[in-house]
């Protein structure tokens, strides 16, 4: 009996044995009793397993009360920082494969499984940055996650991490000018870099003003000064420098662990004890990056507290501080707590910040918001997995009264506020805001209704995206409504969940100005803001 | 839930929070695959929300919700044939009846299981709990415990048997104690 039941829960019982079990269950009361007890144990195990995973997250902060907890077996996995960096890299590669395919993907799993990264067209990926500021005149100003082929990177200040397709990692420390020349080659014109070259990428080469450095499996730092002099320092392993002094005299030097070589502006080499300045490594960058991320999270927590205390806040789901097994989404005023149906808790903009993932068609949060507002601001942080055949609902009213609203992204990528007016939909649409580069990333969306200026405004990532005149005279109504899915009474025909994540939703009973909306975005963004992108486009 | 008042919504929330695990356990008894049972729980939850105005407060919410769940399982059987619901209708009915008869002991079994889990050695406990984490499978459990997948299958069979016997023993002990006191 136990063998059959084990096979059953693992879904590998052949039909003949299922029939045998069926006969047994019909014939024997004892078999039925044993079966029900076994399956009940199975569901209890699932409950405890999920509870313990959740417990780990909570107890990580608390570091206490282990005695009185019923179950507390595992401790959090070590090296969360390393995992973060790894996950970040994987995500970037996912984005990369997405871009190179130019085809929307249907799920994270499919993205992870995609191995279509082409060595022919992609040499390296910009995987991380801290305080990055590009030169004003730089021809290329890639975003983190962007794939690169032949390109010259001119950084005014800050750090950038490049991962070459063959496996080398390079940290550029601004001010620096670096050229990507292949999947395993680059050229340092000016500035500092530190490279980590795993054995698989042996032969990684960097051109220097008077020669070429060829890696023999190692970690090294390079510094090209303004006048063309160069310092080479080897942290681990060995490199070979092939240079030419003035007049043309080719020579070669092997530099081993702990050794430093100085090349003067005329190409002559000499041994030095230590480089003049230290080089930033991947660990330094990961640490600074994580520190900055934590700072951003802490800033958002402050903002979140502020929002929950503002008199104009009418409904606020911060999605934070929820135990992963809870099926209630708390409104900060507890007036409109939502019932979570189907969707699962996951990490939001930061590790440890809660978010709900809407994956299945009917995943949703149901709640009641029995207030009407003529002036309003809707704002949310969303992360879409895809936007292809269906609209992506953020909130949708099930009310049939005039002013009943649905707020969503349509298939074309436009942010839409849809209001019911005399049994018909009145839609206020932005221009196209969601293209493939915004899929899989956290995006801040906001829409305001301002009866004073008589305008409905849409905002993407804190920037005004479009404005339209208000044509409806009815106040906005939600009543019984859904977060992350369409209500039955909305006008959208093909209904399904948002297919992505939501990790913050707020409704203010006044119309925020662009400056106020931008603050919500700037404090809440999980990404570093690259300061050279100062255009008015969102 | 259209037209329901906020109070009514709160009641629904409270009841769902209280009984969701048990409703899931009921469905899981009829649908042995956890992910399939979760899908049906979701369908049932939606209907529970929609029909909640029909539910009379003071009556047994769990029984009412299980009736909805039962019909969802039946509907799933029609819709997906045996891909989700592997048993025929006759088996579903007798299992459902048996579960109803055993209802009083499930809370005791649930509590007993937590004690039995504590009696396992660390590796076995990790193995079985990893296997039962949401979205995890035998391969994940094998990886977490440094075993082959085949070895993990065997180990899980053994661990489930140990736990089942332990829970049965605890239940008997508790029932005996209750009779004597």
What does this structure look like?
The complex is a heterodimer of chains A (538) and B (181). In chain A, strands 1, 2, 3, 4, 5, 6, 7, 8, 9, 10, 11, 12 and 13 form a 13-stranded mixed β-sheet that branches. The longest helix of chain A is centred in the first third of the chain and has 34 residues, at 29-62. The termini of chain A are far apart. Chain A is α+β, with helices and mostly antiparallel strands and 538 residues long. Residues 57-120 and 530-538 of chain A have low confidence and may be disordered. Chain A contains 7 helices and 29 strands. Chain A has helices at residues 2-9, 15-27, 29-62, 80-101, 108-113, 282-309, 514-524; strands at 124-134, 147-148, 151-164, 169-182, 185-196, 205-208, 211-215, 219-224, 230-236, 238-245, 249-256, 260-263, 269-272, 313-317, 328-329, 338-341, 344-347, 354-358, 364-373, 376-384, 392-397, 405-409, 414-421, 424-432, 442-450, 455-460, 463-469, 476-483, 500-508. In chain A, a hairpin with a 5-residue loop joins strand 12 and strand 13. By secondary structure, chain B is an all-alpha fold. Helix content of chain B is 77%, strand content 0%. Chain B has helices at residues 6-30, 34-51, 61-80, 89-101, 106-119, 122-132, 138-144, 149-180. The longest helix of chain B is centred in the C-terminal third of the chain and has 32 residues, at 149-180.
